[in-house]
Amino acid sequence: MFDYTKFDHVFGSQTFPYDRKSVQEIDAFRKSLDGVLFIDRVLKALGLTKAKTYPPKTENALRTLHQQLCEATMSTHHRLSIFYYIQLDFDTSQNREQASSRFAAASGVPKNYQIFMKGLWLLDHLQFEKALEYIAHPSLTTDFADEIVTALVRHAPDGDYTLPLSYFHTVQPILKTPDALHLLFDAMARSSITEALYFSRTHSEAIRGQLFRLLISSVLAAPANEETAARATELVGLPFDATEEAWFEEYLSQEDGKKLKHARDTLLMRKLVTGRYAEAVKDKNLGGRWGVVLEGVKSGLGGRAE
């Protein structure tokens, strides 16, 4: 009968998977993930706080980790899930998925724990697209959602935020940290300004104001190109409510946003788009091409803009 307290029952006589190359690879993955793997977070959450418990560099170190897990105060399912994660490393070293499946069958580790740990293992190995199939599974809770969003956004290839946005829309997690929320919102704003605006409205007034300003800066601080011009055009045409209209003007005329390139142009365009021609032509600080445009507007109004 399977007994997880017995090392041989858990790991058997399999070849030790952590050679120098694999340990260096795991350390490189850890560095890429801002110094913390997801398995590090799991171990810490379950009370194993010793630095660099994973990966065990020798078989004796693996035996020590096994003993620590057996003696630690945690549920059996949590204990088995960590063993399962390690079995995934055995799979890789043997180039076949037998160690983890055999362990799962023998130990009875619940399927949703298998799914979650496989997702974390894939994240730790920077296999983000495949990881999404697991971490967004409907049987899972939203553990480590902030960290998952952060990893997916920061590793988005060439500004393609499909994966973090897919994770967010599928799982609908409540993010707990401002950093994760701002990263997600910036990714959303770079993908769809309109979607980002409506998302900002789902938050409290204070957070909503922060996100709204972030939306503006994400557009105006971007490198000048055709895409940025198109996004700026979309921005000035958004259906702001009265509060957002006030924030827009305050941010670009009085707050930090006034330092952004084209802040004044953007304010003017908003006035033109919303039909406030009289306000636009009264701006004495505008010249050059805008002066010509506004003179045309003024003439078109037949003096009514005075």
UniProtKB/TrEMBL annotation:
UniProt entry keywords in alphabetical sequence: Nucleus
Residues covered by the ELYS-like domain: 36-254
Alphabetized InterPro entries for the sequence: ELYS/MEL-28_NucAsmblyFactor (IPR052620), ELYS_dom (IPR025151)
Subcellular location: Nucleus
Record Pfam families: ELYS
Chief location category: nucleus
Signal sequence range: none
One term under GO cellular component: nucleus
PANTHER family tied to this protein: ELYS PROTEIN, PROTEIN ELYS
UniProt-recorded name of the protein: Protein ELYS
